[in-house]
Give the backbone structure.
Amino acid sequence: MRSLALNDLSHNKYYNWIVRNFFSTWLNTSLTIIALIFLYKIGTFFLDWAIFSADFKLNFQGQVITDRTMCSKNIAPGEYGACWTIIYARFDQFMYGLYPAEETWRVNLSFFLLPFAIIGFLFDKLPLRKYFIFFTFIYPFIAYFLLYGGPNLTIVETNKWGGLLVTLFLGVTGIGLAFPLSIALALGRRSNMPIIKSICVIFIEFIRGVPLITLLFTANVMLPLFLPEGVNPDNLLRALVAVTLFQSAYMAEAIRGGLQAIPRGQIEAAQSLGLTYWQTTRKIVLPQALKIAIPPIVNTCIGLFKDTSLVLIIGLFDLLGIGKAALADMTWTKLYYEVYVFIALVFFIFCFGMSRYSLYLEKKLKTDNS
Amino acid sequence: MKNNFIRKIIFDERSRSLLIQTLTIGIFAFIIYILVQQTAYNLDKRGISSGFDFLNMSAGYDISIRLISFTSEDTHLRAYFVGLLNTLLIAICGCFLATILGFLVGIIRLSSNWLFKNIAYVYVEFTRNVPVLLQIILYYSILLHLPQIKQAIVLLDNFYLTNRGFFMPSPVPKEGFGIVIASLIFAIIASYFLKKYLKKRQETTGRQYPIFLMNSTLIIFIPVFFYYITGMPIEFDNPVLKGFNFKGGMVVRPEFLGMLFGLSIYTAAFISETVRSGIISVSKGQREASKALGLKNNLVMRLVIIPQALRVIIPPLTSQYLNLTKNSSLGIAIGYADLVHGFGGISLNQTGRAIEIMMIVMLTYLSISLIISIFMNIYNKSVQFKGNA
Amino acid sequence: MTKIKSLLIALLLSLGVSTAIAGSHGSTLDVVKERGKLMCGSNTGLAGFGNPNDAGVWEGIDVDVCRAVAAAVFGDASKVEYVPTTSKVRFTVLQSGEIDVLSRNTTWTVSRDSDLGLDFVGVNYYDGQGFMVKSSLGVSSALDLDGASVCIQVGTTTEMNLADYFTFHGMSYESVPVETNSEADAAYLAGRCDVYTTDASGLWASRAGYPNPSEHVVLPEIISKEPLGPAVRHGDSQWADIVGWSLNAMIIGEELGITSANVDDMKGSANPEVKRLLGVDAGYGAMLGLSDDWAYNVLKQVGNYAESFERNVGMGSNIGIARGLNALYKDGGILYAPPFR
């Protein structure tokens, strides 16, 4: 009987899976135990800190928290976890910066419309894709009108923008503007006109050789020295210039990779059919090259999205900058971990989402080709 | 006649490309000319002086984190070198640590243990999807919450961990230490020749020698032997708490540690991915074949898998090193005195020479990037397929 | 061909126009008037000097200088837009023309006045660099600070003063550079450094915001002269006069006993200097390119120097600084405005 039971067990696929993955050898078994202990310690510590022993709106005495001294962990040190009230209290700033409270619906509306503007680009089998793509092209004008203002809407100067709004603005606009520029650069770099080629190579390699922070400094401090008096692009615009140039160089390299993957024979075939350079490029080369290049392009976009946090060093209040400002406020100072963990989570959601999308594309590309 | 000319411009490829290029040069030259004019005019109008003479003026500020001596009376030029060395220091230490960590995590991600594999996966996803600047600031604020100087954590009697840094004894060489150094150099040279000799023997006789073991024994034991013979010519200068701070010994500042952790933990996540895909790229058949030839597990890894995986790993690894070096410019966020913070920040502010200083800083980074690329290219060539292809 | 030609011509023309635009400039006063508001470079947040209050309204004695200039130019002290500047970017922001006046606890030094292309037009606060330590350290003099770790804001004159002071007294220190006030506060409170050094006024302002102000002492040594004042771009002396005399009007107002409450009554005063100042005797405004009641507007809307001081940093405010050097020369201080005639 006994041996039969064991026999049964070894045919069970779950049992097999567990043995193979956790207990195949002595070494494996001990690793599993170490990992379990590690997970238990870290997991319980973090969950306890972040959820079970944490304050949300009330502290453990049931009072509404209005400043950091009322956090449970500051009343009874060592016994309580995070004090998330700072996130609640400053949530509007984290989202909109100093955007006037009665106008924040405009930001919300542009946030809400953003996915519709992007979705047409992301999925090529989307129903009604034509309309979505059309919307992509009018979205920038809608967003500009909504965010900055214009007829019938009060103007909100960009120095009042902040938080996620600035992070998304720099990320999305930077990528959007860099895209056409990067195609030009990538084509230029593969051009057989030596001067155009060398200008593109120098530009791309220069930008890729220096840190983004030096470009931001240059844009912030030196741009006014290059321009005529009276022409003073505001701080956000200067950062946007730097971010766009930076992104276009990296994107151009990704697109160049796609261009290189197009067999020379296709181009020659197109030319022998009498197509001009621009026709060949537009109808034959680019559509295929871009399709191949999208996963690496998305990866550069993830990089750029994270790098927008650097603008805090030149004094813009992006998500991280707003977080630091919240910590500078004596009412809430010292709640570092709460703020940083929250911001990290926001960035993580966006970047992880994008990286999943790029994986999905890579897989699709493989199945399409085979 | 006129018609012909136009036709030529539009339809003849060579003359068209000539025209386009001439136009491009013209427009570029014109734009640059205008920019230079405008900038010169602006500088003049606003009474801002320019030039590189400031490099020889005394800097007037102090830098605490430094590899070469620096006082406030030294010049801005020296401040530049202090910053440059700090940048190189953090870049080298960061690349080193990130590589070790990255290889470790990359291999763990291929382990057969499901839990280990997935812990590594979670680590990779969480660190590479959060901005490195945020991570640097976060690790730095954790380091600032270490005990204060009076409540230092004492490790092994003479090591102290505080929020002002990690204090440890510094070795002070005495007379006779030169002999130990000389013996070390000798041991390294000897081990090189021994390796050559044993390899030759192996090729002729087919016998395998534990070359690595023998050489490491050689390199460790000869200097240790001489160290004791010369009467232990090293003294340790222990840090002692005097007044406000520890005196003597060495210290690693939290600003440096914050940068090191931030940069290497972040970059290691990317390196682990390249390592993983590099190892996967070596086909399973090769592993099985070398096992069938009777190679032991670690030899399969060292002689078959790693050398082939390196071909795939090196190019992306290079760009990760470049990224790490460029990211080391974020020291400004936590007060690590690198090139951008000291020379590009404080000197710029005191002299007002924005254009000159930013130009120097950018050219420096460009040169560093170039040098890393060149070296990694040379290394890359050495690991690629050789010979009769 | 015509198309290409016309395109080329258009291109050249537009480039030419842009260079032509680059060549023309108006005076700062005209630019300000046309814009309808004054662009004022302020601190990113220093209590008592320049700081937005809970309602988002800027307050402080540096802010009052900008308000005075706006009152003088527009007759309306609220026509100011504040551009928060860090110590690092403040000069370039002014040089580039983004702001019209920099009023941001900035020290008047020879190199800034000449080499950086600025003009300082007066002093609105006589300050000096001091040290703050935790009282538990038992330090009573800056000369006991040998070997200490010092938190210091970069991009200021303080790092040079500090280096000079410690070198001169043969003491060593570890400098811990930080970017902003609030980072300095955080590092100091966390114990990363023993000493926080900046202008004494800034130390008092920081201390007032700490959880337990009484646990921190500001040491008696003042190691530098820090005359803080508003600065303008070099090369427009009319504008420099306007900003300078807006500040002087506040100081003269205190000398003559004119306050925002009694300024209307003072218009009937027999004192000829009061008459000239308040525009009862016409002609002095035009010399500056302003209306005759400019100083009246300054005193009416902003108040005299004493009012501004008491409101923002004085013993009555939560900063609690005594007048000291910043009293009038008649009262034992060194505040002394040129005569108004």
